[in-house]
Specification:
The complex is a heterodimer. Chain A is an alpha+beta fold. Chain A is built from 8 helices and 20 strands. Chain A is elongated. Chain A folds into 2 domains: 227 residues, Rossmann fold, CATH 3.40.50.300; 109 residues, Beta Barrel (OB fold (Dihydrolipoamide Acetyltransferase, E2P)), CATH 2.40.50. The longest helix of chain A has 18 residues. Chain B has one domain: Orthogonal Bundle (MetI-like fold), CATH 1.10.3720. In chain B, strands 1-2 form a two-stranded antiparallel sheet. The chains are: A alpha+beta, B mainly alpha.
Chain lengths: 369, 327
């Protein structure tokens, strides 16, 4: 159990700067997920915490102790690798016990801990097998078991599920969540999969190009993205973005004759460029809304996606998600609308400029038309 | 309609299926044919350049053929190997010179391959680490291997020379020896000199084979070991060594095959000295110097059998599968 503090942590490989000063405060027992697109530095950040890479600048504290210069083994961490990193010539038992043999534990203690971890992960019937005789999911369990037996203060997971198939991924995800509840250890989990991030995290750290874009609970990120990047990254299908500019004191003009009434947040002035964001779930079909043509229909069973080209905004393809089966097909003419309350507004630098408090003070004007 | 087909088809198709089981399908047969066609050139060439000389050598070993007239010989059975005239034993198997050469060869093989393996692992581990100029280093270290054996043997012969050799000179100046040592002629040092030159020459080959194996190893298990705080020496013996063992054994067998038929190095360094003569040197002496094609062939056949036996034992002991990994 330990808290982890990052202060201005930077990492460069030669001249390439990979992490540009990350400040982060991870609380004891928290489940933190680093999420971001490939190459955003999330794995590098994890490896910095693990001690597999040296920190170029800044400080890292684990449990109040500055650990910049401590080797991985002295940091009280255990790591689960994407590729499992099992020793191919050792059986499951040996794989799990290997890291313990040094820790001055007696043979009996080692055996006890390995068997207990194996029971917890339901691999106690596989202890004699070699890694190559295991399925991907079993291998991942062994890798997790190897971490558990060390009883670390901090678990680090580097995309542990990305090599598993979809069904197994869901199961293992649930098991990792259970492991967190059972051990109440601090966990840091790297993934590019936002479903894993949303379901597992106490708090999510969204990384982009070596910078932290936003830190928050899954629902904070979903409902109040701090900027365009987070808005676009969290949520699937992606949020729709409509370009426009501020017109007058309380209107956003998306196109000629197409405006939305919006009491503006501080800082926005008439004429400023803005981006309006609306999630596909909040786009409704209507009789009177924005006219457009269905470009593509995707049926997903429990719901369906409509891709709509809007007449008024050439080049803008809106995604709408609606429950059940689609009643439209490509080429159909339809109209869409969405609630102003459901809209996100971003200024020209991509930062969120909340439509002032979505509270009673803002008149509910209904659909945008 | 379908009913009729069904009824008619059943009794016919059952035996047809049975037939298919016994006789491979036409596709399978054509694949097998193609495989033989592609294999044929290799098999023919192997038969011509390896099979025929081997068969001829074995045949000559049962004759009294002589080098000055190879067409005139008689079959004498096992007399080249072992024969008894009036209670006295003759033949190679009773010749102390032969057994001395066998012992020389085996000793040379064991010592030189052992040293080369240990040094090769060390060099490979160094070359496997990331450091500036690694590419250049890898190229440089191969130079001894690239030099023809005769050239390097002659080079070392001069360096080891008792009067003018640079090694004696160096040791004298350093005060390590009082008088020059006749490295290649002294029976105490001759075989060690041969071993040293062989180690110098073939360690790069060993290192290269081991380096290739090291580079196949997954990097993540080393990071896992690092996180678990396992000492590097322990990681080497518990992880690296078991994982490169198959490649290591193949490398050892390659080197042992080479070492067991060593000829040029010993011939150039120490000529026909009995102290250092290898099996190949012995066979050449019988064949060329003494013109005894029969005896020489018998020696060659014995070399073949001894090498085959040793390699089979090594493979069995190491459980090496030459075609694939044993993991």
């Amino acid at each position: 159990m330990a808290d982890i503090v990052l202060k201005g942590v930077r990492k460069s490989f030669g001249n390439a700067k990979v992490i540009h000063g990350v400040d982060l405060d991870i609380r004891d027992g928290e489940f933190i997920v680093f999420v971001g697109p490939s190459g955003c530095g999330k794995s590098t950040l994890l490896r910095l915490i693990a001690g597999l890479e040296d920190i170029t600048a800044g400080d890292l504290f684990i449990d109040g102790e500055r650990v910049n210069d401590l080797p991985p083994a002295k940091r009280g961490i255990a790591m689960v690798f994407q590729s499992y990193a099992l020793y191919p010539h050792m059986n499951v038992y040996e794989n799990m016990a290997f890291g313990l043999e040094l820790a001055k534990a007696s043979k009996g203690q080692i055996e006890e801990r390995v068997r207990e971890a194996a029971r917890l992960l339901q691999i106690d019937n596989l202890l004699e097998r070699k890694p190559k005789e295991l399925s991907g999911g079993q291998r991942q369990r062994v890798a997790i078991g190897r971490a558990i037996v060390r009883d670390p203060k901090v678990f680090l997971f580097d995309e542990p599920l990305s090599n598993l198939d979809a069904a197994l991924r869901v199961n293992t995800r649930i098991e990792i969540a259970k492991l967190h509840t059972d051990t109440s250890a601090t966990m840091i989990y790297v993934t590019h999969d936002q479903v894993e991030a949303m379901t597992l995290a106490d708090r999510i750290v969204v990384l982009n190009a070596g910078r932290v874009e936003q830190v928050g609970t899954p629902l904070e990120l979903y409902h109040r993205p701090a900027n365009l990047f987070v808005a676009g990254f969290i949520g699937s299908p992606q949020m729709n973005f409509l370009k426009g500019h501020v017109s007058g004191a309380s209107q956003i003009r998306l196109a000629d004759g197409l405006t939305i009434a919006a009491p503006l947040a501080n800082g926005l002035r008439s004429g400023d460029d803005v981006t309006l964001g609306v999630r596909p779930d909040h786009v409704r079909l209507s009789e009177t809304g924005l006219a457009g043509r269905v470009a593509l229909v995707e049926e997903l069973g429990e719901n369906h996606l409509l891709y709509v080209d809007l007449d008024a905004l050439p080049g803008c393809r809106l995604t709408a998600r609606a429950p059940g089966d689609a009643r439209h097909k490509a080429g159909d003419r339809i109209a869409v609308e969405f609630d102003r309350e459901a809209c996100h507004l971003f200024d020209s630098t991509g930062q969120a400029a909340q439509l002032r408090e979505r509270s009673a003070s803002a008149p509910r004007e209904g659909a945008l038309t | 309609m379908s009913q009729i087909v069904g009824q008619a088809a059943l009794p016919v198709s059952a035996p047809a299926f049975e037939n298919m089981r016994e006789r491979p399908s036409r596709l399978t047969r054509s694949k097998v044919r193609a495989a033989w066609i592609f294999l044929a050139p290799t098999l023919i060439i192997l038969a011509l350049i390896a099979g025929w000389p081997l068969a001829r050598t074995i045949w000559f070993s049962f004759t009294d053929a002589s080098l000055n007239n190879l067409s005139d010989y008689e079959f004498i059975g096992f007399e080249n190997y072992i024969a008894n005239y009036d209670g006295e034993w003759f033949g190679i198997l009773t010749d102390p010179a032969w057994w001395r050469s066998v012992w020389n060869t085996v000793w040379f093989t064991l010592v030189s391959v052992s040293i080369e393996t240990v040094l090769g692992i060390a060099v490979a581990l160094i070359l496997n680490a990331a450091f500036p100029g690694r590419g250049l280093m890898r190229a440089i270290i191969l130079i001894p291997w690239a030099i023809p054996t005769v050239v390097s043997a002659k080079m070392w012969n001069w360096m080891l020379h008792d009067q003018f050799g640079v090694i004696n000179d160096l040791l004298l100046r350093l005060g390590l020896i009082a008088a020059p040592i006749t490295w290649t002629a002294n029976s105490d040092t001759a075989l060690w000199a041969v071993v040293m030159v062989d180690v110098w020459k073939t360690t790069p080959f060993m290192a290269l084979l081991i380096l290739a194996a090291l580079q196949m190893l997954p990097g993540d298990i080393y990071e896992a070991a690092k996180v678990d705080g396992i000492h590097p020496v322990r990681v080497f013996f518990k992880v690296t060594l078991p994982l490169i063992r198959p490649a290591l054994l193949v490398a050892v067998i390659f080197r042992a095959l080479d070492a067991l038929r060593v000829f040029d190095l010993i011939y150039v360094l120490t000529s026909n000295s009995k102290d250092t003569a290898s099996m190949s040197v012995f066979a050449r002496q019988q064949l060329v110097d003494f013109q005894e094609v029969g005896l020489g062939s018998a020696a060659s056949t014995l070399i073949f059998l001894i090498i085959a036996l040793l390699i089979v034992v090594t493979i069995a002991a190491g459980r090496v599968r030459l075609g694939g990994e044993t993991l």
